[in-house]
Amino acid sequence: MIHRRTLLAAPAFLPLHALAQAQGEWPQRPVTMMIPFVAGGPSDITGRVIAARLGGLLGQPVVVENRPGANGAVAAQAMARAAADGHTIMTGSIGVFAINKALRPNLPYDPVRDFAPITLAVTMPNVLVVNPQHIPVTDYAGTLAWLRANAARASYSTSGVGSSEHLTMELLKLRTRTEATHIPYQGGAAASTALLAGDVQLTFQNLGTVAQHIAAGRLRAVMVTSEARNPTIPDVPTAGELGLTDFVVTSWQAVMAPAGVPAPILARLEAACIESLRHPESRQRLNQLGVDVVASTAADFRRFQEAEITRWRSVVESAQIRAE
Description:
The protein is of the alpha/beta class and about 325 residues long. It folds into two domains: about 15-125 and about 250-320, D-Maltodextrin-Binding Protein, domain 2, CATH 3.40.190; about 125-225, D-Maltodextrin-Binding Protein, domain 2 (3-Layer(aba) Sandwich), CATH 3.40.190.10. It has helices at about 15-25, 40-60, 75-80, 95-105, 140-150, 165-175, 190-195, 205-215, 265-280, 280-290, 300-320, and strands at about 30-35, 60-65, 90-95, 115-130, 155-160, 180-185, 200-205, 220-225, 250-260, 290-295. The strands form two sheets. Strands 1, 2, 3, 4, 7, 8, 9 and 10 form an eight-stranded mixed β-sheet that branches. A two-stranded parallel ribbon has the order 5-6. About 50% of the residues are buried.
């Protein structure tokens, strides 16, 4: 069953200057914020919002590096091998830190063993969007009717095999007995561009990725997977309102470091990332994109991550989804 979890907000932290004194001169050089997808997607947006303030809090520049491939596995493997000195961290998705473990038996990294948690940064619902130039529908019922009439040529884009968008669409197909060909891309921005170009006709995407396109009328939203309607798109019904039970899907982004980073450095990274996310300008920027700021403690995130791995393994097995 797919359902939403709510995490407690992080408790008070030691002042950053006290943590800095505890760890001496770290960081000694710029910190790399690795992003496992192309620019413009949810991981990239979240990572850059954090990085914008993180450098000032740490006293060194934070350099964002996009390294896409294999639904985030390329960057994750590089992170697992990075020096455990706190100079390399990564903002990654539910796919990188949970779904991949369930989907890929030969995954070249372990999302629990190989990484040290820093914070669960944000959560966001998926939204089913269509290109109105290619699917002349105005609502969910019309979308289903179009899919049933065009099964041979219908296709949908995602940010990669095993992404939350992929699993959400496959579940929709199972529940509604519809068909559409999966076309994976390297990241949500690329998947959305394909939809805008008419290369595919529909997609589930994180709301943050497509909110601006919906507002501009370039894409039409017909369903949101949150428990309640999202204030960014208040006229779009939830899956539950449309008769789909147990269909609440919340995607998320989190920050990790390589396993073995000393505890004082992790504590400082945790405090700085949380402070970056909780800054009013950061929160406003993310909320405008339909993203909910969580900024959890590292310990809360680890518990959440392990529960998510178990949950998505069940979904992958029941839907018989296989990595390509």
